[in-house]
């Protein structure tokens, strides 16, 4: 299924792939100022603006490789001494990478421009020269038009610390403005990532007419302070670089045909190691797989009308047509239907079955949605209630109930949005999803013991941030690939950020641990050892339970195979010569039932 | 797991078929109760065993039948796990019979006790359910013996009667719902026998269980509770581990999955439509190179690689195994503690909540864990932990929240995101935009809507009452599936039934709320203007998508256009076209038809064969080629006035979309407007113009399109399991 598999989206996967097929690829051009000013180091040896920019570019490259490698990225410098662009039409514009999918080589190229050495390399290959933003934008426009693929989202980010790149040259300014508006007309969104310079960065002097107007009417984009720290820069670029796409556009029905159009957005999706690609040994080229369904006896291909679907219950196989299977799943058309409201405290912490999604109005579908949505958001938030809805996100999906939890917009000190305004959609469990547990008898701790633990907890306080932990499994996988792709001797080390820093913890706690242990544990108690009773049952279990073939048959007849353990069932399969690929209990049972009950 | 044995003991005597006009007879009611109950058991796939004993039967069949006393009692089925055979038997073999034996139900009870005792299995529960209208005369002679027997065997008893046991003697209002309101024929209509019988039933029940005995007497209308198929229950698996804080402090814990999205244990299998045999269907995957000949590659010659952006890196399983991330296995280690408020609810990841309790039978661990739980609770903090289920599974980062309930304390673990999981989308502000800012009037309309739709109300005692508890609703998808499976199994050959009304009702907004919110809703309609945006449907033709316009020089396009209309000399020059090749099948197709050396049917067959091949590739470029083939097919068919081959092929193609995953191809076809040939175009076509147009409008396509979404994830899961 082509590159569909590569997307680490589970929830949004289909829509994205589908949209991509229909609408094309996302693209991003980094247009970076390479003037002398960009190379000036900050106070106390802080990295130069150029150095920071390269770090950010690298981060975007590697994150794209992981999350959306089909996106196209280009890196272009302006204000250079040397020129490099198709046919060398433009002076002082250096296309370092043209629009293409990022790969290992490109990451290396960008790495080479980082740090002290990078500055040196930049001086050699790029050099500093006069700037013409107009030419640079023109050159970028050519990059876009050279692409044979259909592009959906086109973004161009200008990194600079100079508020007037042409030093007030009106002709050049005008030319740049013309080119910028040409680009914008073809659907390119131009962003300014302005960097710190002494005396502040006045956007209104020149760049206001270059960049695309912000999505909302606010002047938010231009009021932003220039980026000074790498962190801020990363955040600002990241916020712009990820194109948001609704995984579904549906109506929120308040009742009686009163509909608000909304989009569902997957804001957190479990990133997974991508599945491997199959290659032909001789040439390392990717092979395609074709799956066919055919009749075992005649060998002829089976048409959809020649197969049915079946399940077995109570020793009976029950067949359905394929469209009956779909029919059973269909409850209603996709949409959110309001049931009512509940106070926030009714939303239980443990009622969690999958990651939430985000809800935002779609003014483009039903005009007036944003206003009613906004009123609903405001009032829910004020009254501290959530909306309970029935949700069918996609066609033929059975309904789920969801809590729409209001979230007000929040921006940080640098005016970058941390939390967007809208509802978080929390999926709620059905009765089947909540398990009944046998609650063990509990002994409560005394206040003294609790207080000691409070000291421990307080000593180990830290500020949690949801993006603080990298996934060591994925990082390691990509480091390995990187090493293989770039013929490196050994992969770069991955720091496992979710490993407890044991030494630090021990040092911080000091004697508290022993004090606590003295309060709760008796002298000879060792929590590391397994309890004696446990071991005994383990030993008892060992001897293999033999079940005769006759007994198995009786079990088959009575439908009581489930009473047997997996090893016994496996053994039984072997005895009866039942071939099974499954290892799960149900699969073994099914295989035995299939064979023996007929 | 708890196993139990249950005996359904049903009165089928002739009195049971008595009913007032228009009323369902007690027999039919009792039969439905039994059916529903057995259904539940079958689909829950419990290991509980079940027997069916009938009394009042014309014949006699029971272990004691040589004794005169035990006549007219039939053990229809001994204790075993219920199956569809039993359901079919209930449906087809159990009828009201004509016997009216005296003193029969006490004797039937005796038989039941005996049957209960036949099982060799160790049981946790034995239960007898008696369904009767109590109309057969009862003697109380044996009663004490029976009660003694029941007590000794530790058997519990339930009665299902057509009327409530406690009519009029001060029922609690809550009981009303349980028994079903307004049951017909209650109270005054009881015969002398029934009154006597009822007294005896009460006596038995109270002797067995003084306090709650009477609660085990149900009416047949309890069927409402039985309609629901049992919720899926799984045995919680204990996960013993140590919670560690640094190197020196550890606490023995045990974890249980408490909440998780439950999936059905069984999935659909593919069977042959004719024989209904799974073994008759085989799926095979072959691999081939991406060349014109689709050269097949043997499985042994395939190695694996991974994408690194635009690069594909060959990476053998062995290397991968050696270089992959490894860790020490099972772990629940505290990384630090943080404020509860800094862990946002909408950032919860994963698909489960794990409850952490102290290690089994370890009082010291209980105290230590309790200290942690209470400390966290008092400080309003949570532990951020590294969690790894075992050595083969990937470690996670998550939060452990304190949870203090009246009867227990525990930690609740939820997975939190990794940096790679998060997408930082920025959305336009809603407040800074004057167009979207609601007026005070509008806000107050929404305010009253919320007030009128509160699902949690306070009753007179100030106690909160939640009238819509989602976690009490059974998963409707399972309920519906079981309903349909059951229907198909006992009524083969009939269409699937509509959704049951009770199920539909549970998914709707409660009636009270719907009525109460009417005026507020009307107010909102007045105050807000909502208008559907008319969309000029942006039609993307396949040519636009593939950039055909820009890719191909005008000259070449013109040439092709010409070829469409007229026979091109250049094509003859190429002359050697003898079959529809893979390079330009559409052109070959046209050439062959003009050459007339092969029959139209034969050429069409060759073309459709090529189309199948192309579609097998599942790639947009090949789709493009396929579309030109289909277009050529259509154009030539119209020209020759032969619509049948084309029309039937296109219909076949359409029906194969969901199974072949050709949704996106179909969409392109739709956008290019390639539809059936109608009678307007070719005389003799059986398709009307409207049908031809409707043909492309299909719901199925979009439905099916949702499916591939799930697949990559599943494959991914599988791969992970295999590789790790």
From TrEMBL, chain A:
GO terms for biological process: DNA recombination; double-strand break repair via nonhomologous end joining; telomere maintenance. It is found in: Nucleus. One of its GO terms (cellular component) is Ku70:Ku80 complex. It holds the Pfam family Ku. Its main location: nucleus. Keywords: ATP-binding, DNA damage, DNA recombination, DNA repair, DNA-binding, Helicase, Hydrolase, Nucleotide-binding, Nucleus. SMART domains: Ku78, SAP. Transmembrane segments: none annotated. Its EC number is 3.6.4.12. Residues 27-237 form the VWFA domain. Signal peptide: none annotated. Belongs to the ku70 family. PANTHER family: KU AUTOANTIGEN DNA HELICASE, X-RAY REPAIR CROSS-COMPLEMENTING PROTEIN 6. This is DNA helicase.
Automatic annotation (TrEMBL), chain B:
Its EC number is 3.6.4.-. GO terms for molecular function: ATP binding; damaged DNA binding; DNA helicase activity; double-stranded DNA binding; hydrolase activity; telomeric DNA binding. The keyword Nucleus applies. It is found in: Nucleus. Keywords: ATP-binding, DNA damage, DNA recombination, DNA repair, DNA-binding, Helicase, Hydrolase, Nucleotide-binding, Nucleus, Ubl conjugation. SUPFAM superfamilies: C-terminal domain of Ku80, SPOC domain-like, vWA-like. Gene3D superfamilies: 1.10.1600.10, 2.40.290.10, Ku, C-terminal domain, von Willebrand factor, type A domain. One of its GO terms (biological process) is double-strand break repair via nonhomologous end joining. InterPro entries: DNA_bd_Ku70/Ku80, Ku80, Ku_C, Ku_C_sf, Ku_N, Ku_PK_bind, SPOC-like_C_dom_sf, vWFA_dom_sf. The keyword Nucleotide-binding applies. Residues 168-194 are annotated as: Disordered. Residues 294-433 form the Ku domain. GO terms for cellular component: cytoplasm; Ku70:Ku80 complex. Pfam families: Ku, Ku_C, Ku_N, Ku_PK_bind. Single-stranded DNA-dependent ATP-dependent helicase. Belongs to the ku80 family. This is X-ray repair cross-complementing protein 5. It comes from Gouania willdenowi (Blunt-snouted clingfish). The lineage of its organism: Eukaryota, Metazoa, Chordata, Craniata, Vertebrata. The gene is xrcc5.
């Amino acid at each position: 299924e082509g590159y569909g598999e590569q997307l680490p989206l589970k929830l949004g996967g289909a829509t994205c792939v589908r949209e991509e097929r229909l609408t094309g690829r996302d693209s991003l051009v980094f247009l970076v100022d390479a003037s002398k000013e960009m190379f000036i180091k900050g106070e106390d040896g802080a990295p130069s603006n150029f150095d920071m920019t390269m770090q950010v570019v690298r981060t975007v490259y590697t994150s794209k490789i992981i999350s959306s490698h089909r996106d196209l990225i280009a890196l272009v410098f302006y204000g250079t001494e040397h020129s490099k662009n198709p046919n060398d039409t433009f002076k002082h514009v250096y296309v370092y990478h043209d629009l293409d999918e990022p790969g290992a080589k490109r990451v290396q190229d960008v790495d080479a421009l980082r740090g002290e050495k990078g500055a040196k390399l930049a001086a050699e290959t790029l050099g500093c020269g006069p700037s013409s933003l107009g030419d640079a934008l023109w050159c970028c426009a050519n990059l876009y038009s050279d692409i044979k693929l259909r592009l959906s989202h086109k973004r161009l980010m200008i990194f600079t610390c100079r508020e007037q790149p042409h030093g007030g040259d009106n002709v050049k300014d005008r030319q740049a403005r013309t080119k910028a508006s040409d680009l914008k007309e073809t659907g390119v969104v131009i962003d300014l990532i302005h960097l710190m310079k002494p005396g502040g960065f006045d956007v209104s002097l020149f760049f206001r007419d270059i960049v695309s107007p912000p999505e909302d009417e606010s002047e938010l984009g231009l009021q932003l302070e220039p980026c000074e720290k790498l962190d801020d820069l990363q955040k600002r670029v990241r916020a712009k670089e990820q194109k948001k796409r609704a995984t579904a556009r549906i109506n929120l029905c308040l009742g009686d045909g009163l509909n608000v159009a909304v989009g569902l957005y997957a804001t957190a999706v479990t990133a997974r190691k991508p599945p491997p690609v199959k290659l032909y040994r001789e040439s390392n080229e990717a092979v395609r797989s074709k799956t066919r369904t055919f009749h075992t006896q005649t060998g002829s291909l089976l048409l959809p009308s020649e197969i049915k679907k079946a399940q077995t219950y109570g020793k009976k196989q029950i067949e359905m047509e394929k469209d009956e299977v779909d029919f059973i799943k269909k409850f209603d058309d996709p949409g959110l239907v309001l049931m009512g409201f509940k106070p926030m405290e009714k939303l239980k912490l443990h009622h969690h079955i999958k990651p939430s999604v985000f809800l935002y109005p779609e003014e483009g579908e039903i005009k007036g949605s944003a206003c009613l949505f906004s009123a609903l958001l405001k009032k829910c938030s004020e009254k501290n209630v959530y909306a309970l809805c029935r949700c069918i996100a996609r066609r033929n999906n059975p309904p789920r109930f969801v809590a729409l939890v209001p979230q007000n917009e929040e921006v940080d000190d640098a005016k970058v949005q941390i939390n967007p305004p809208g509802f978080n959609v929390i999926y709620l469990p059905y009765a089947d999803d909540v398990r009944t547990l046998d609650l063990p008898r509990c002994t409560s701790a005394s206040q003294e013991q609790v207080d000691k633990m409070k000291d421990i907890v307080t000593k180990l306080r830290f500020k949690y941030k949801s993006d603080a932990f990298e996934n060591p499994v994925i990082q390691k996988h990509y480091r390995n690939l990187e090493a293989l792709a770039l013929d490196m001797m050994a992969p770069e080390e991955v720091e496992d950020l979710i490993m407890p820093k044991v030494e630090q913890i021990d040092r911080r706690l000091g004697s508290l641990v022993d004090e606590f242990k003295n309060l709760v544990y008796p002298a000879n108690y060792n929590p590391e050892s397994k309890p004696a009773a446990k071991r005994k049952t383990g030993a008892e279990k060992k001897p293999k339970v033999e079940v005769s073939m006759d007994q198995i048959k009786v079990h088959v007849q009575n439908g009581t195979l489930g009473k047997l353990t997996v090893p016994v069932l496996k053994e039984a399969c072997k005895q009866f010569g039942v071939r099974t690929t499954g290892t799960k209990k149900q699969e073994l049972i099914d295989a035995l039932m299939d064979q023996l009950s007929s | 797991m708890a196993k139990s044995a249950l005996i359904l003991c049903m009165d089928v005597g002739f009195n049971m078929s008595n009913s007032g006009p228009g009323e369902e007879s007690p027999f039919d009611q009792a039969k439905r109760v039994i059916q529903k109950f057995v259904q539940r058991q079958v689909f829950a796939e419990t290991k509980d065993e079940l027997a069916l004993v009938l009394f009042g039967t014309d014949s006699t069949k029971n272990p004691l039948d040589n004794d005169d006393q035990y006549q007219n009692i039939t053990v229809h089925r001994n204790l075993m796990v219920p199956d569809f055979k039993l359901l079919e038997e209930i449906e087809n073999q159990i009828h009201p019979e004509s016997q009216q034996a005296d003193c029969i139900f006490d004797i039937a009870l005796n038989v039941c006790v005996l049957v209960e005792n036949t099982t060799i299995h160790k049981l946790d529960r034995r239960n007898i359910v008696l369904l009767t209208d109590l109309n057969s005369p009862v003697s109380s002679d044996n009663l004490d013996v029976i009660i003694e027997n029941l007590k000794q065997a530790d058997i519990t008893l339930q009665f299902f009667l057509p009327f409530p046991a406690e009519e009029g003697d001060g029922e609690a209002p809550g009981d009303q719902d349980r028994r079903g309101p307004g049951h017909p024929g209650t109270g005054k209509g009881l015969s002398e026998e029934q009154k006597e019988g009822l007294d005896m039933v009460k006596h038995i029940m109270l002797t067995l269980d003084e306090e709650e005995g009477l609660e085990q007497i149900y009416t047949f209308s309890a069927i409402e509770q039985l309609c629901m198929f049992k919720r899926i229950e799984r045995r919680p698996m204990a996960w013993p581990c140590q919670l560690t804080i640094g190197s020196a402090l550890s606490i023995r814990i045990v974890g249980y999955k408490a909440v998780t999205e439950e999936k059905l244990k069984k999935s659909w299998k593919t069977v042959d439509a004719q024989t209904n045999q799974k073994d008759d269907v085989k799926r095979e995957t072959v691999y081939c190179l991406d060349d014109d000949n689709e050269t097949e590659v043997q499985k042994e010659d395939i190695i694996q690689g991974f994408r690194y952006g635009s690069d594909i890196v060959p990476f053998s399983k062995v290397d991968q195994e050696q270089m992959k991330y490894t860790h020490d296995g099972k772990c629940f280690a505290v990384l630090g503690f943080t404020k509860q408020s800094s862990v946002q609810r909408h950032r919860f990841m994963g698909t489960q909540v794990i409850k952490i309790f102290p290690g089994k039978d370890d009082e010291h661990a209980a105290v230590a864990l309790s200290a942690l739980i209470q400390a966290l609770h008092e400080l309003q903090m949570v532990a951020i932990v590294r969690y790894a289920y075992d050595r083969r599974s990937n470690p996670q980062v998550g939060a452990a929240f304190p949870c203090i309930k009246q009867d227990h304390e525990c930690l609740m673990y939820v997975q939190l995101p990794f940096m790679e999981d998060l997408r930082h989308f920025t959305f336009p502000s809603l407040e800074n935009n004057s167009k979207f800012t609601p007026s005070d009037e509008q806000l107050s309309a929404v305010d009253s809507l919320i007030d009128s739709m509160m699902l949690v109300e306070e009753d007179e005692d100030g106690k909160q009452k939640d009238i819509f508890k989602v976690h009490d609703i059974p998963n409707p998808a399972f309920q519906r599936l079981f309903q349909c499976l059951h229907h198909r199994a006992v009524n083969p050959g009939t269409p699937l039934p509509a959704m049951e009304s009770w199920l539909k009702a549970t998914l709707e907004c409660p009636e009270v709320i719907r009525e109460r919110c009417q005026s507020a809703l009307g107010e909102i309609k007045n105050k807000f203007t909502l208008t559907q945006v008319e969309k000029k449907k942006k039609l993307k033709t396949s040519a636009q998508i593939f950039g055909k316009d820009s890719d191909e020089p005008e000259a070449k396009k013109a040439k092709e256009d010409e070829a469409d209309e007229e026979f091109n000399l250049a094509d003859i020059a190429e002359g050697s076209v003898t079959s529809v090749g893979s390079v330009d099948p559409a052109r070959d197709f046209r050439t062959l038809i003009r050459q007339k050396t092969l029959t139209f049917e034969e050429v069409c067959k060759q073309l459709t064969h090529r189309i199948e091949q192309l579609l097998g590739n599942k790639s947009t470029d090949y789709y493009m080629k396929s579309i030109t083939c289909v277009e050529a097919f259509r154009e030539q068919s119209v020209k020759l006035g032969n619509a049948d081959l084309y029309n039937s092929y296109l219909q076949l193609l359409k029906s194969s979309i969901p199974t072949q995953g050709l949704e996106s191809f179909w969409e392109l076809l739709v956008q290019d407007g390639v539809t059936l040939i109608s009678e307007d175009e070719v005389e003799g076509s059986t398709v009307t113009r409207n049908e031809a147009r409707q043909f492309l409008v299909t719901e199925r396509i979009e439905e099916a399109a949702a499916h591939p979404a799930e697949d990559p994830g599943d494959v991914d899961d599988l791969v992970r399991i295999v590789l790790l």
